[in-house]
Amino acid sequence: MHLKKSSRSRQAGFLRLTRKIHRTTGMLLFICFFFISATGLLLGWKKHSGGLILPRSYQGSSTNLADWLPVDSLHQNACRFLREKFGADFSTELERIDIRPDKGMVKFVFAANYTGLQLDGATGQLLHLEHRRSDLIENIHDGSILDRYFNTGNGQIKLIYTSVTGIALLLFTGTGFWLWYGPKKLRRTRKQERKLPGHLVDH
Questions:
Q1: Does residue 25 fall inside a structural domain?
Q2: How many domains, in total, are found in the chain?
Q3: For FRET with 70, which of 87, 126, 161, 175 sits at 20 to 30 Å CA-CA?
Q4: Is the distance from CB of 125 to CB of 103 less than 8 angstroms?
Q5: Coil, strand, or helix at residue 128?
């Protein structure tokens, strides 16, 4: 009898601890979970947003790379278009180049203000000037927006943020499962005890 009560007490105690961890984790990281879920939803829909989140890719005049201008010339054109639009003081620090032979287009993505340009690979003409909302949302999603803001050297904030939220989500999932399964197990234990013969329970 005492062993059964002790077992039930341990199960009930573990269930209370699980509930406390689950509740505390949820309260402490509520804002993080909100941003992760909201931005994750937006990123999932980015290719189906009609160009609102992820700009559509425009078609250039030639898909034959032999007809294309050198990448250096295309880059100079992109920087010129950028300065004409935003002024001579606008930063032309390049983040990446996305070459799309099947579209006949080259995309230059600049670090400042999530700005991108699509150029015709063969003529170097501007096809589209874009604000890359998808990159901004992605940076919010993984926490790297704080690295950009504080200009950290090696993505330290992103590493800490993703580690903490990742571990917390695993913990949240585990405790959530136990909050569902634990009471069922406790009820099953009590039901089994009631079925025991009276002379065994008394001992």
A1: no
A2: 1
A3: 87
A4: no
A5: strand
